[in-house]
Amino acid sequence: MKNLFGLTLPELETELKSLPKFRVKQIAAHIYKHGMKTFDEMNDLPKSLRAEMSTRYEIKTAELLTQLDSADGLTTKFLLGLSDGAAVEIVLMRHDYGNSVCISSQVGCQMGCKFCASTLKGLQRNLTAAEMLGEILFADEYLRRFGKTLDSIVVMGTGEPLMNYDELMKMLRLLHEDYCLGMSYRRVTISTCGIVPAIKKLRDEKIPVTLSISLHAPDDKLRSALMPINSAFGIKSLLEAANDYAQTTGRRVTYEYILIGGVNDTEEHARRLAKILSGQLANVNLIPFNPVSERDFNPPTRNAVQKFFHFLNTHGIGATIRKEMGADVNAACGQLKANWQNQNH
Ligand code: SF4
């Protein structure tokens, strides 16, 4: 049976070419906007059409394998199973300013960042646009059960989204359609470890998504040691591409900086970071390292975090410290999946 989930309206029109266009649009809205999983639920379609559709097509998205809720009720982590048996994590965060979901773009990751557990087994495969959209609609449907809405999306989970560029674009455009969530591009953040040519390509798409750069070090030597991608695209070219993105789209770029105890968290690192970001339309998000058993790094001291934060803010760089959410639900990427696999295999 052919799965209709993930097809755009023009693709549905081609697939269902015997149906009038208004019918196809109704079906698209039922699939994406109303989250229907069977044709029987589509009451405004003739009964005979519903029966016929059920014999030829299915509407299949990710299924929930397991979930964990933080004690404070602000964070929920879901492990979703895909049709080939792969599994991806998403994290739902309830902030004061709205509900946001962090989704994955790949199964595994090939980028090899030294502080990250998601890359330890390399890249297994790219997610399709349908699978990424499925992650988002899962979170949207979950929230709707509680009378809440999904307000923003962050593509910052497992994987490097810009290494899965075409499927990412297809998903973003589908998400934006009025028969889907009608999500404004401004409510979407794409996080990258710094694929410079893809940042330039994204700039030219003319869709004002927020760009978030995983920087994590203020100089090439340290950054290349932590993030192998830096050997291909150094900090200078990365900051030029990011600045160009900000100037073209008018969107402030966020720089993510994981503070790792004794590695990149001294005042000297803060000074060098302030220097390279001076004059950029930028904001720095400081993330105290969340220890993962697979990686041999330490969290920073509370004092080091405060000093780093203070230094940036008093030297012209807007910085925030990421509120620690869901430490009790294994907030570090990949941990829910690892735990689930250990228990079920
Ligand atoms: S931090 Fe992101 S880009 Fe780097 S290895 Fe992990 S998932 Fe991949």
Give the spatial strand order of the biggest sheet: 3-4-5-6-9-10-11-12-13-14
Helix content: 25-40%
Structural class: alpha/beta
Low-confidence stretches: none
Share of β-strand residues? 15-25%
CATH topology type of the largest domain = TIM Barrel
Specify the number of helices.
Answer: 11
Please give the number of β-strands. Answer: 14
Give the N-to-C terminal Cα separation. Answer: 29 Å
Protein described:
By secondary structure, the chain is an alpha/beta fold. The strands form three sheets. Strands 3-4-5-6-9-10-11-12-13-14 form a ten-stranded mixed β-sheet, sandwiched between helices. Strands 1-2 form a two-stranded parallel sheet. A two-stranded antiparallel sheet has the order 7-8. The mean pLDDT is 92. It is elongated and about 70 Å long. It has eleven helices and 14 strands. The structure holds iron/sulfur cluster. Iron/sulfur cluster binds next to loops. Iron/sulfur cluster (SF4) binds at residues 109, 111-113, 116, 118-119, 158-160, 193.
